[in-house]
């Protein structure tokens, strides 16, 4: 038994020292990334309130410049970054993994996200954080020199887990995401190594940047379990809207795929104009990740149904454009907006609880990872006591979404990256 367990861990002490160094570097790099991303979001939103018309110049030009440059010179930094990790994990080809994950890719991701948010793109930071973490850990393999496929793939999953943990201060969700999404094909024993290193990353993260919950402390809000049945309509609604988002996104990406420079520029310009219109109409509220807007909603400052509609279509346009950026936090903000709107119909359930459940349901429907969706929201709000209703809503929303579109979005996009790497 001892020999069997040891087979699933690296043998050399140097390996563990380098994993520790990779953990520290990931914490520092992702924290820096979060800081400059938040700074660029703030600059754009402040500027656009004073000069709203300039949005019609800034945002389309930003989309064209970033998308064109990325497609021509560094194609694999596009999108959220999670599909790249899945593709790298599914691939046995070292050259493919090195195209998708490297220190160069991590640096490019940080720079592009900063510029995209400076230009008003409605994008999240969690997928890029996961991509950065995966790139750093896999980049360290040139020093660690793991040869077994099992350990190499575990290393990639560890990096993805680390990125999510640092981004959202959600250790359980990070571990679950590594196994539920990135490492679906990994052996179960990999979870032990992933969990050990992820806990180490979490400890370093607390030491370096504190332990504040990402969406505030909502631990005082509870739910009478005898009322749990009332959440079924909410789970169905969020499942439908999240499933439609995923289906529309994958359909439009295939429809808008372009191979010529002219088409790339035209499509990027058109989608940039769409986002600019929503930025103008919302006074910049739909720009960025949506973190600030979720905090407002959770503090009983409803942003209205128009915010939900504009964020929904702006996020869809941005993701379809393939501009670098994640979908986690924008999805959470859409879910929060939906929850705020339907909370008036729940007279027996606390408004914040309804919003939390709506965020879980919508995120689960979009990314089709119900365990991750539940734990990441509950950890970000210190609401793990709502685990049972959260899981119920997540799995129902996931089931509804699956009826709308069979393949999860990250898996579908990962297949595309594998095809691209083989052509490159």
UniProtKB/TrEMBL annotation:
The chain crosses the membrane at residues 16-39, 51-70, 101-125, 150-178, 190-208, 228-252, 264-281, 312-337, 349-369, 375-400. It is a multi-pass membrane protein. InterPro entries: Cl-channel_core, ClC, ClC-type_chloride_channel. One of its GO terms (molecular function) is chloride channel activity. The keyword Ion transport applies. Its main location: membrane. It is found in: Membrane. Pfam families: Voltage_CLC. Keywords: Chloride, Chloride channel, Ion channel, Ion transport, Membrane, Transmembrane, Transmembrane helix, Transport. CDD domains: EriC_like (cd01034). One of its GO terms (cellular component) is chloride channel complex. SUPFAM superfamilies: Clc chloride channel (SSF81340). It comes from the Bacteria. This is Cl-channel, voltage-gated family protein. It comes from Bathymodiolus azoricus thioautotrophic gill symbiont.
